[in-house]
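Hi everyone, sorry if this is the wrong subforum. Our group has a chain we'd like a structural model of before ordering constructs, and none of us has done structure prediction before. Sequence below.
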Amino acid sequence: MSDVIKMIADITKFEDLQQFANTQYKVMITQAKKIEKLDEEVHRLTLLLEQEKQKGFTSSILDTNNDDQNDAETICLIQLALLNRKSMEGELTLEETKKVETFSKVLLSIKTKDSTENKEKEIVQQIDTSNLLSILNPPKVLDKK
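Answer:
Right subforum, don't worry. Here is the predicted structure as tokens:
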């Protein structure tokens, strides 16, 4: 900074001072344009980052490999994750806590239903074919009269 002051002090002619001022003005205009472009780039990248965060957020919630996941389960998972995020920022309202409870119950009932169906399938698969045939064709009992 002191070098600039010394340089200005060394200028004795008005024309030299005018040329110096014009040069400084052009530099400031160029720098202002660069700053404006960089601000626009920062804004664009911030929006892009938010979009990617949202994509990553929803894709981490949803199990894309699970074709059995129904719409209700998907909705519950997303809403619970959103409410979880909100709870990290501050306290949930009464309405929001009721939503958490409702979504949790729905999700639990879906998972319970799925596990019950799986158990029934296992039981059916465990029954031996010969046992099934014996149920259909019970042994004949001879009547002794």
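For your construct planning: The mean pLDDT is 79. The radius of gyration is 37 Å.
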